[in-house]
Amino acid sequence: MITKFNFLIKSTIFFLFFFASSYYLYSNNYKYEFSTKIILLFLYLIIVFGTTFSIYKIKTNDNLPIFVLTNIYFFLCYLLFFFSNKSLIFHRFNDLELIYALKIFCYGYIAFVLGYFINYNIIKNIYRKEFKFLNASSNEFFIIGSFCLFINLFFFELFNINKYFSGLSQLRYVFIIIGIGLLAEYLFICLKNKDSILKIFLSCTLIFLSLSSFILNTALSYPFILMFLIIVYYSYRAKKIYIYPLLIIAALFLFMHMGKYEYRILVAQNNQKNILYAIKDIISSQTKVFFKQKHFKKYTQCNNGNSEEDTLNCKIVVNYQLERRIFHSIESLAIVTKLTPNDVPYWDGYSYLILKSKIIPRIFWKEKPNDRLGNEFGQRYNVLTKENKDLGIKRDDSTSWNMPFLNELYVNYGKKGVIYGMFVLGLIFSLVAKIFTISNHQNMEKSVSFFIFVPIFFLESHASLIFGALIQTYLASIILLFILLKVLRKFY
Residue 464 CA to chain centroid, in angstroms? Predict the structure, then answer.
């Protein structure tokens, strides 16, 4: 009786929140035509109820949570923008341009959902056999996971072996994925069965050092995605949502992101000699973010060098850096739909050509071309600085401008490309979620596959970055696990 009452209360709160937020979404876009408002509400309805249903089924569904995470990505990076003050965040676009971008997103999202669920119903009774050799004890999870992260820290961080053998850079991520995947499972086991405190401490320390090394080297996205995935993995294993740790990680990422550029400047200026210099620089950059208003939210801008007290020549400026970072996907979609094909012709599949080279690992191909599509996208759509010899301006060849998967489809093939491409993506996601789900928790492939395949939900990059090394990473991980387990069981 109490359970039914709690369910009724939660359901009532959910529906009240949904109707209130729907009304806000409708009223916040009052300038738009009725048909556009219906599209917004329709998208909001599908995403919210699709995500809620997937979370509700989490206790009976063991499939990798790719679909629900992709829905969250689409909501945060595309649809949430229409809950905000659009004209202040992205003032470069008029209503017609934003509406057209919204329609393109709508076509792509509906095609994705259809592709996912059509394939889901076709293959729902298909089950893949596990590799029985990878069934392991908790102690084997700990030993191999610790070994892999130690190898990463010792060879790739301390001795920077990439300087001498650049082709090994891809192998580094294999060690990281295996290490974090196995130790995440080991720590989850320790939550239920108390194990050695020393092993728990060592596991947490190795994970912390591995993630911190990326942050100290000015890379934020990858370590925070791994932090996010660890919490999601615990939710996936425990069959319940750990919402507060997820919120803490999100807040920490946004705070660190605000000081990212200042930190990179300090790194370039100070030429860090050791980890202590790196820690000093990151503390200094984040201190600037916290204490200087212009790096945080609002600041006073004055003309003609006047002081801030001279209010006649000063104005309050709102810094929307965080909002622009979150809404990058919809912003870039608005840019490409505005300029393509009238000002910038379709790319006709050019950005997918580099996928061919991704099949061969760099260790076997020294002259393998680098993926510089992020910079090419930015130059092609005039987002990054172009060379101007008259003004002495150099071309920006280093910055990468992310081109989300859906937007890339439009860049290459237009509206039809978005519809067909997102439908195929739905088929692929459904297949991956089914084929690489291992029900046996004692099988090492379960946790490793989670950390290899679940990150594809984050579709903010172009296809070659998302899928380029996916199969190679999986195969390398499985082979490495077989070798390490064989050696361990022979001598241990």
Answer: 15
